[in-house]
Design a protein that fits this description.
Blueprint lengths: L1 H16 L8 E3 L3 E4 L4 E9 L5 E4 L7 E5 L3 E6 L9 E9 L2 E9 L6 E3 L3 E4 L4 E9 L3 E4 L7 E8 L4 E8 L9 E9 L7 E8 L14 H15 L1
Length: 233
């Protein structure tokens, strides 16, 4: 009878412990996620044998990372990051019993999503070819006013998935009175239209490097007269 009573008590202890006797397991299908400036959503699949798993977000008051438990795991919602110069990072931690897995979240700021390696060119009146490289992780449009017929696209070369090299021809200029200026703008498409980069092209005025026919300087004329006098003597 005592043996039966002890067995019954032991069985009750096992049942009451429940998950405490289970060795926790926890796996995530993603641990590093990168987002563009417009943000987005990602569902992390979580496999665990602990029913009451939970998560925490680093610096929850930042308000740009939000989480929601789903039947498959954890859905992360990332807010847009359009008006700041700095990229940002946060960490989401998932806990199941004494197991923990961390998810690192990186988001590129709008200002770092699109850059140009050169902001200005100074071109001689003789004209020349200029080139610059755009580094971007977003779609963009390169704009040049149709009225600027003296600047033409010569070549566009994709260096890799993010970098593109552009070559433009600047025509010669024969205005001796003043220089001229033009701008090429690079603008993000869609949600990124607030991102804009400018490339300024300054072309110098024309300065003749020879004396036009029929024009003789005073110094040259004087020298010729002296020579004539010498011959007469």
């Amino acid at each position: 009878m005592k043996k039966l009573l002890l067995l019954s008590i032991f069985s009750s202890l096992i049942i009451s412990c429940g998950d405490d006797l289970v060795t926790p397991t926890l796996t995530l299908d993603q641990k590093n996620i990168s987002y563009l400036p417009n943000g987005g959503e990602t569902e992390i699949k979580i496999n665990t044998n602990i029913s009451d798993w939970y998560y925490s977000i680093q610096n929850e008051d930042n308000d740009w990372v939000r989480g929601e438990k789903t039947t498959a795991g954890l859905k992360l919602k990332i807010s847009p990051h359009l008006n700041n110069n700095d990229n940002r990072t946060s960490i989401v931690r998932v806990y199941a019993g004494n197991e923990m897995q961390a998810i690192t979240i990186n988001q590129t700021s709008a200002n770092n999503a699109l850059s140009v390696n050169t902001q200005a060119f100074t071109v001689s009146a003789a004209g020349e070819t200029i080139e610059f490289t755009i580094n971007s992780i977003i779609d963009y449009t390169v704009n040049l006013a149709d009225s600027l017929e003296w600047i033409r696209l010569l070549e566009k070369e994709n260096i890799d998935s993010q970098q593109t090299k552009y070559k433009y021809v600047v025509d010669q200029y024969r205005n001796m009175q003043e220089a001229r200026t033009a701008k090429i703008t690079v603008v993000g498409n869609g949600d990124y239209s607030i991102i804009e980069r400018e490339i300024t092209i300054n072309q110098e005025r024309y300065i003749p490097n020879h004396i036009p026919t029929g024009i003789v300087s005073a110094e040259t004329s004087s020298s010729q007269n002296e020579s004539t006098k010498t011959l007469v003597k």
